[in-house]
Amino acid sequence: MPLPNRPAIDDLLEVMNRLRAREGGCPWDIEQTFDTIAPYTIEEAYEVADAIARKDMRDLKEELGDLLFQVVFHGHIAKEQGLFDFDDIARAMTDKLIRRHPHVFGAESERTSDEQTVAWEAIKAEERKSKAKHGILDDVPIGLPALTRAAKLTKRAARVGFDWPDLRDVLAKLDEETEELKVEIEAGNLENAKAELGDLLFVMANLARKLDVDPEEALRGTNAKFVRRFSVIESALAERGLTPDQSNLEDMDALWNEAKKAERDAASDLS
């Protein structure tokens, strides 16, 4: 039970202690490792982003708690192995933020947001050197969603001049990769088609970077739009006593276009 006047984080850490206790703990929690918990950590981060996108503040509070628990869980496993603990995590983050904001915590003058972005990346580059990570791409996390990682890889390479100078060059490359994909599909070479599809997606991520668009955010928006419009199709068919598998593509496509038009009309009314 929470103790009066005790920081809530202390209660959470104590709950974690109990869950991992070899005697009286939870068998599932005791079995977990860094590797088995990592997918849940990623999932919780996405659920935080989802709550923000839906502007559901009650859900956001809960999802942030779930994400915090993931940090506590990893910290506890590390403590058991004598590596570090939750306090070390918090202290390292505090030190990093102070180090990367000398205009706030040091003697440097004020910066604009753009100036801080440039300075932040310069400081990170110096930190990579101290960690023996000298390659430009060394610390772009492999575990990132592939589109996000592609955008970060190209952004990092662009800092040293490895970049298309003009947006039209990216669009030309997009056309080139599309044609190469078509060739492999028509040849029936699915393994090569897979590689060409990867190339095409990589260029799309590069295009998103050039447009200053988060590719994951753009795709999430399209996913949400697809779900919204397909739900309209299901509802319209249900009114006819039908399900999608009892319908046909022509009818569903017509309903899709109706849903699309309705959305556009609603958007025009709001503008």
Automatic annotation (TrEMBL):
E.C. no: 3.6.1.8
SUPFAM superfamilies (UniProt xref): all-alpha NTP pyrophosphatases (SSF101386)
Coiled coil: none
Signal peptide positions on this chain: none
InterPro entries in UniProt: MazG-like_dom, NTP-PPase_MazG-like_C, NTP-PPase_MazG-like_N, NTP_PyrPHydrolase_MazG
Domain NTP pyrophosphohydrolase MazG-like, chain residue ranges per copy: 32-105, 170-229
Gene Ontology MF: a single term: ATP diphosphatase activity
Superkingdom per UniProt: Bacteria
Entry's Gene Ontology BP terms: dATP catabolic process; dGTP catabolic process; dTTP catabolic process; dUTP catabolic process; response to stress; TTP catabolic process; UTP catabolic process
Swiss-Prot/TrEMBL catalytic activity: ATP + H2O = AMP + diphosphate + H(+)
PANTHER family named in the record: NUCLEOSIDE TRIPHOSPHATE PYROPHOSPHOHYDROLASE
Similarity comment: family membership: Belongs to the nucleoside triphosphate pyrophosphohydrolase family.
Protein name: Nucleoside triphosphate pyrophosphohydrolase
